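ok so i was messing around last nite and threw this chain in just to see what happens. nothing serious, just curious
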Amino acid sequence: MSLWLASLSLLVIVTYPTSPPLFALMGEWPEAVYLLFLAALLIVATTLKNANRGSADETQAFKRAGVASTSVCAMTYIANENATAIRDALTIAVICFFVLRIPPHIYIGIIRRYIILNAILLAIALTLLGACYVDLIDYTHWHVSNLGYLSERNPIYLRQDFSFHMPLYFLVIPFTDSGVRIFGFEFLRQPLIYTEPAYTWINSAGIFLFSMADKNIRGRVFILLALGVSLAVSASVQGFLAVVSILAILMIFHKIKLFQRQPLLFIALILIGIYSLIFYGFHELVLSTILPEKFEQYNYFQESLEIIHLLKNFPLFGVTALEGSEFLSYGSVSIIMRYGPVGFVVLCGIWLLLLVRPLKLLSSNITTMSSYLFAAAVMVSVIIMLRVPQFNQLVPMILLAGFQCHVGVRKAISG
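result:
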């Protein structure tokens, strides 16, 4: 029972506050319910006997990342009185403690149950979506303005760029006539149980690849179908590109032994290559031709960067929400608004840590297909998170990367 409680707690923590149906179940005091689930996870981690067999190097890396993240969030609260920063600080602290405390065989059991819960929720949402497409459910009668049960604090009300339908208070359908354009084809993206498709990918892409690696998880076919179809209908361009590029990068890493011995050199060369493409304008040609919608977003992003560059006295720990509304903010730039230059540097350091750690694992003798899929799960999650850079969005990556602290779990997924 404690394993299912921990898994449910992880589900609530990871999806809060981006899942309107789950947020609605938290009643009038969602913050209090969230803290209860944090406390439940902390109690489970505390009561279980600590049998972590991770190496000192791996556990110290997680401790440093947790301390740095928590410190930045705490300083942001002190500077701006941003209550969200306190939530982020508590979340990162509890999750890192959980990863470092739980014994390996129990850890993998909790994560497997967490994946199963995710798959069940997405399968229900996909079933409702199919019912809407064949007119078994008239979703137009379920516009959020007509749903008296929903609180005005629900995140579905906070999105000003979309109007939403919410059939049976569970499936989220954005009201829009436009979708994402790829090679001239247009797809209407469905976020399913989240406020936008990006969150569907942030919370599902990593565990999808992990489920491909873990041959011992129960209901593996059902899980892969539910997660795979959900990723397809949410159609994140950045997500698709991340999966393809990371798998290609891992193939190169596998073929060239020098990179296997020097993972930091490998990452550095990748970053230099990306910078070179941007410097010569190659990315603009590709985006404008293949992904015109993303080209428009890139121009907006570039404009935001120019504004940030002109801010000579930008606060070290960010600005308040009211002050931040005066500036353009998109993607990775928003982290500077929220947590300041210090938070941006810390988050970049954690991103680099989470990218290098899987490669270090592959530098050992564990080079099975499962180990490569596991590495891809962590790295793809990191790349997708660049779309919505917040400290609480680190949780899915920390949970996956936490397996590097557990020798028993590493063997479980590799066999």
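not much to say yet. The two ends are 27 Å apart (CA to CA).
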